[in-house]
Amino acid sequence: MKHPSSYRGRLLPVLTILVAIVSIWYVAAVFMNAPFQRDLDRRGNVTRTTAEFVSATFSQPKPVLPAPHQVAQNVYENTFLRRVTSNRSLVYHSWVTLSSTIVGFTLGTLLGILIAVGIVHVKALDRSLMPWIIASQTVPILAIAPMVVVVLAAINVTGLLPKALISTYLSFFPVAVGMVKGLRSPEPIQLDLMRTYNASRAQTFWKLRVPASIPFLFTSMKVAIAASLVGAIVGELPTGAVAGIGSKLLAGSYYSQTIDIWAALIAGSVLAAILVTIVGVAGRIVERSMGGRPA
Amino acid sequence: MTASSSSVVSARKLGLTFETNDGPVHALSDVDLEVRKGDFVSFIGPSGCGKTTFLRVIADLEKATAGEISVNGMTPEEARKSRSYGYVFQAPALYPWRTIEKNIALPLEIMGHSAEERRRRIERTLDLVNLTGFGKKYPWQLSGGMQQRASIARALAFDADLLLMDEPFGALDEIVRDHLNAQLLKLWARTEKTICFVTHSIPEAVYLSTKIVVMSPRPGRVTDVIESTLPAERPLEIRETPEFLEIAHRVREGLRAGHSYEE
């Protein structure tokens, strides 16, 4: 229960893992980049000490595996040293991806809630819809994404919306499943109580089912927002998109700009972490305002 | 329906059979009972004797499959729809996202009382259950006994004349239970409600009731109905008087006659 110790208790393990990852990453970078460096040195007739060789593997312009500091430098430069409107700015690309993530997430959450309400209230929907919803998530999104983009382009829907729809496709699922569970979470005794008041279905819904489902909503929204981001990035891959984290990844792989690819990955991860945290904090604020016991 | 005007609950040959995969279960069979206005009726018996089921039939939470029953001269469904009773469950069933006063306001909101009226009634019922000053607390901030009192306040808030209580103090320790029993009697005297009270505690039944209905299982049925001879004024010490022990003895005999001690 003591705050400082729980803070340290959470920070220390995370930092330990981080140090471990970075160390392994450095070692791996040496080994992965060594063959090319040896090749290069042989052709250039250069002989190096081991230390020089290792440091050379850390500073190739297009390494197989860039060293952490190369990625960090790239992220720093492209985040803070460029104009936000520049095509090389990670902020710019993140913003493009973020905007379609948010639109897709919003649509997905609304759709998920709508489906859940339908499933909970209409028995026929419960039987007919649920298997399809589950089946929808077994289809590989990488296969669907190009088709969605192409089909929508054929009817002149381009730009943000196709990407957002792919996010929607990925994010409605956790919300629908979570909300079905949430709307069904009231105990029999709480439902009986409503019955003794002769409450209407609408009253039972708004005064019991909805408030009872709020914790479930935020838990599933955390999953959904991460899925939305993946959807938006995947949606940018087949579109030949000119902007966004996905296009940055694609361009990086075309031109073997490995450092750029890793930088875009980092940008995506940071974005995901920020988004999940925002949803988590919003959830905690709402739960606190609904009389939640402070943890 | 031949029930007299003062009859609140009247059951004739009432039966309820649940169809299960293991064959029919006779939860209630041939129950005849009359609850008059102002009565405090306890239903006592071992698990499976149908006492809770009977209460749920009165409340229209279960449907009888045989016989007839009237509540306030209506069918249970009509009685429920005209909000004739307040129901107190085994657990407080307070909504955790509502404060105590908001919980009490719940039935009032559903029944469409004005904000002004709600405030007045919340104040009055909180006072009835001695919880004045706790209205702004959330349920988890209250002890189990206080939560159950809040749930009684909620059942009282909309002024139904009939109070159905299903082992409301079953989960509480004996000290708290004694205290709440005494409070409940005072409340009953103040409000002149008719109370149907399910319990599995003999002292609780004898202490509270004007009428004790002894039930036994398989099939769930009434084996004895005991009219209490105890005075209306009942301090806790009354439980050591010969008269009290006499009635308790008769209840125990009734339970034994129903073979309820056999397992």
3D architecture notes:
The complex is a heterodimer of chains A (about 300) and B (about 260). Helices cover about 80% and strands about 0% of the residues of chain A. Chain A is mainly α and about 300 residues long. Chain B is α/β, with parallel strands linked by helices. Chain B folds into two domains: about 1-85 and about 165-265, 3-Layer(aba) Sandwich (Rossmann fold), CATH 3.40.50; about 95-160, no CATH class. Chain B is built from eight helices and nine strands. Chain B has helices at about 50-60, 75-80, 100-110, 115-130, 145-155, 175-190, 200-210, 240-255, and strands spanning about 5-20, 25-35, 40-45, 65-70, 85-90, 160-165, 195-200, 210-215, 220-225. In chain B, the strands form two sheets. In chain B, strands 5-6-7-3-8-9 form a six-stranded mixed β-sheet, with helices on both faces. Chain B has a three-stranded antiparallel β-sheet with strand order 2-1-4, covered by helices on one side. The longest helix of chain B is centred in the C-terminal third of the chain and has 18 residues, at about 175-190. Chain B is globular. The model of chain B has no long low-confidence stretch (mean pLDDT about 90). The interface of A and B includes residues 189, 193, 195 and 211 of A.
